[in-house]
C-alpha cells in the first residue's frame, strides 16, 4: 500500500488529496473491469488492501501476538540514549525549530562540539538509564500481577453482577492494549515488519493506566470487605 502510494505520487499523478482519490478510483475501475472481463486472472470481487488470508497465518498471527505481548510487557530494548537522527543540517534545523529542543546529530550533520552540554547530557542519560533498568522489572511484575488480579475480579463481577468504575477503566485500557497488539501482529504477518520499540510506544501508557486502575479497584474491594457493618439507628430498630 505504501509503495503504491509513493509510486503514484512520484509519477506525478496526484498533487493533492482530491486528485489522489480520483486517480485511485479510476485505477480501481479499470482493474475491476479487466478482472470481470477475464483479461486479468482474479479472485471474487473484494475491497481493501488486506491480503488474502493464507493457510497457516492464523497460527502465525497467534504466535506473533504472544511474542509482541512478551516484548512489550518485558520492556524489551529499553534504552534511554537517543539514536542518531536522519537528515542534513537544514532538515535537522527545521525539527529543532519545531520542537524547540536539542536534536541528535546525524551522519550528514555532525553536531557542533559543546563539551559542557555533552557532559551534562551524558550524565542525564546515564541517570535515566539506571532508573529505567531498576524500574523495568518492578513495572513488569506489577503489570503481570494486575493481569492476574483483574482476571479474578472479572470472575467475581460475573458472579456478583457488581461492576466498579476502576475495573471498567482497567478493562478499557487492556482492551486497547490487546487490540493494538492484534493489529500489529496482522501487519507483521501479512505485510511488513513492525518489531520496534517505537511501534509499541502507545502501549506503555495503557499498561500503566491498566495497572493503576486494577490496584485502585482491588483497594476499593478490600476496603469494602474489611469495613465494619454500619450500626442500625434507633428509629430503624423501633420499626
In short:
The chain is mainly α and 239 residues long. Helix content is 66%, strand content 0%. The protein is flat, with a radius of gyration of 27 Å.
Mean pLDDT: 84
Radius of gyration: 27 Å
Spatial shape: flat
Report the count of strand segments: 0
Low-confidence stretches: none
Strand content: under 5%
- Tell me the distance between the termini: 75 Å
Going by helix content, strand content and strand pairing, the class is mainly alpha
Instruction: Summarize the amount of helix as a percent range.
Output: 55-70%
Number of domains: 2
Helices and strands, in N-to-C order? Answer: HHHHHHHH
Number of H/I helices: 8
Can you summarize the main beta sheet?
none
Task: Outline the structure in words.
It is flat and about 80 Å long. It has helices at residues 2-10, 17-36, 57-73, 89-99, 115-160, 165-190, 203-226, 234-238. It has 239 residues and is mainly alpha-helical. The model has no long low-confidence stretch (mean pLDDT 84).
Topology:
Blueprint: H1 2-10, H2 17-36, H3 57-73, H4 89-99, H5 115-160, H6 165-190, H7 203-226, H8 234-238
Keywords:
2 domains; 239 residues; mainly alpha
